[in-house]
Amino acid sequence: MLQTAMLTSAQSPVFTQYYATTSWHNPAWSGNLPVSRVTLNARNEFPKIQNGLTTTRIAYDSSLPDLHSGIAVQLVYQSLAQLFTTYTTQVSYSYNVSIARNLQFSLGTGIYFQQSGWQRGNLVLPSGILLPGSSLPEGVASNKENQYGMSAGFIVGNKKFHAGMGIGEISFAQNDWLPMRLDVHFGTNFDINTHKQRFLRISPVMRYHQQYANKFFSTGVYARIPRFTGGIETTFGINKPISFSLILGFQYSNIIFAYSNETRITQTYLPQIHEVSLVYEFKPKKKRRTDAISCPAL
């Protein structure tokens, strides 16, 4: 368990609900939807451990249709048993152009500031094990370190498919402790219509993630009917237990709620990961651009 926690502390947050946190994984998604939205995400990775690995994210995404652009501002807080904490602020921008008929290209970039460190007061586990922060000099409450850098990414697609890549944690700091992060994603949409209106959308998706020794491949499928979204995903890779995820979403008016449960099949001592998302959408007074690259909606 201790080794897992230490390895996780050197990784950026990876959300089960990728399509509720797209601008975190790839800045080219920033403001991609035709509506502005505020999103709150909460993730508990070690629910059987008191104050385990928790991640909280709040983000604002907005489309700028007259400029063929989008922006996103997000704050992310991560805590490992209140021993190791990370605060991240990221601002990202995307620009969308048509490169062919019914084919869009989005290029995004972002800048981030991050502060991380061990806390002195909470460094002894209930079992008596001391974590590395216990070696802090006498009188020093924490060893906070700052890191800053950028992210970049691109997406190509239309209403029927999307494919892209995001690179995060491109650090400018000399004391860089967090490895660069890579996310590659692909998805497509199949619509079933009744009376010229869409009744059901089926969206197969695939994703590859890599950061230092953590490498995994995820594949799944989402289904969406009016107001409801459901999805299943399977994840496997290096230093990543094989897992199965169930994602459920519900929309009422301007509010979207989503819950996911990720079950680690090959890891029995910390098998469950819970994640919830709450979204509020600001409906535009006039219809905005309809050429946005489509992805499964939560």
Helix share bin: under 10%
Q: Give the helices and strands as they follow along the chain.
A: HHEEEEEEEEEEEEEEE
Low-confidence stretches: 1-9
List the strand order in the largest sheet: 1-2-3-4-5-6-7-8-10-11-12-13-14-15
Q: Give the CATH superfamily.
A: monomeric porin ompg
Cα radius of gyration in angstroms? 20 Å
Structure description:
The structure is a single chain. The protein has helices spanning 2-9, 22-25; strands spanning 36-44, 53-64, 69-80, 84-100, 103-118, 145-157, 161-171, 181-188, 190-194, 197-211, 214-225, 228-238, 240-252, 255-264, 272-282. The protein has one domain (2-282): monomeric porin ompg (Porin), CATH 2.40.160. Residues 1-9 have low confidence and may be disordered. A 14-stranded antiparallel barrel has the order 1-2-3-4-5-6-7-8-10-11-12-13-14-15. The longest helix has 8 residues, at 2-9. It is mostly beta strands. Helices cover 4% and strands 59% of the residues.
Primary descriptors:
single chain; 298 residues; mainly beta; Porin; 14-stranded antiparallel beta barrel; globular
Structure, briefly:
This protein is mainly beta and 298 residues long.
Topology readout:
Blueprint: H1 2-9, H2 22-25, E1 36-44, E2 53-64, E3 69-80, E4 84-100, E5 103-118, E6 145-157, E7 161-171, E8 181-188, E9 190-194, E10 197-211, E11 214-225, E12 228-238, E13 240-252, E14 255-264, E15 272-282
Antiparallel strand pairs: 1-2, 1-15, 2-3, 3-4, 4-5, 5-6, 6-7, 7-8, 8-10, 9-10, 10-11, 11-12, 12-13, 13-14, 14-15
